[in-house]
Amino acid sequence: DAGVTQSPTHLIKTRGQQVTLRCSPISGHKSVSWYQQVLGQGPQFIFQYYEKEERGRGNFPDRFSARQFPNYSSELNVNALLLGDSALYLCASSLLATGDYEQYFGPGTRLTVT
Amino acid sequence: ILNVEQSPQSLHVQEGDSTNFTCSFPSSNFYALHWYRWETAKSPEALFVMTLNGDEKKKGRISATLNTKEGYSYLYIKGSQPEDSATYLCAFVTADRGSTLGRLYFGRGTQLTVWP
User: Fold this and answer.
1) Is the pLDDT of residue B1 over 80?
2) For residue range A14-32, what is the model confidence (pLDDT) as tens digits?
3) Calpha distance B80→A112 (Å, rounded)
4) Which of B101, B105, B110 is the best residue to mutate to test the A interface, defined by the most A CB atoms within 10 Å of its own CB?
5) Chain B: nearest CA to A40, how far in angstroms?
6) Residue A112: is its pLDDT beyond 70?
7) Cβ A104–B93 below 8 Å, yes or no?
8) Are A23 and A76 spatial neighbours (Cβ–Cβ below 8 Å)?
């Protein structure tokens, strides 16, 4: 079975630009979460979606948005990029939205903002 | 702000040594505790999800214990091998009604290096 996939693997953008990151969950998983990891820190929660609805949002500015499609894949959009948005963006999928289920992570998208 | 602490930050051991790490989390509003193993350039790999006080989980040479009343979990690796070299992350899930139930609060991880 395919695991969680993310695209692209790496991305270089300029300040002020916009970026879209994509995630395909494990087949049958209805919950997708997004995390940002900067060097030296643990991953930080950005969003959780379940059955195409936003279930939660972390402490990130409105420049960050996401959506989940009918096939449960998800996109994370970041507008007006700042240098501080440079990070590894991880997507995780889970069967259900509650925290007692295993969350399976993709390999991440490395975003560099110059 | 919900604080999850892991210690030590890094650990270097010889092949064959047994080792353990600590994850400390809030002792109130506990819902679940996750452990992950993360090798460089790979996806974080789920090791355990623990939900009950006193829980003990085992996968091969790796085991974990949970104490929700005092807010800590231990991860043990018996007879470390070079392939165990990775960063081990714990993540706390709070039952606080104000928080998203599936949200993971991660520690910074313990980086383990096992020398042959």
Assistant:
1) no
2) 999 999 999 999 999 999 9
3) 35
4) B101
5) 7
6) yes
7) no
8) yes
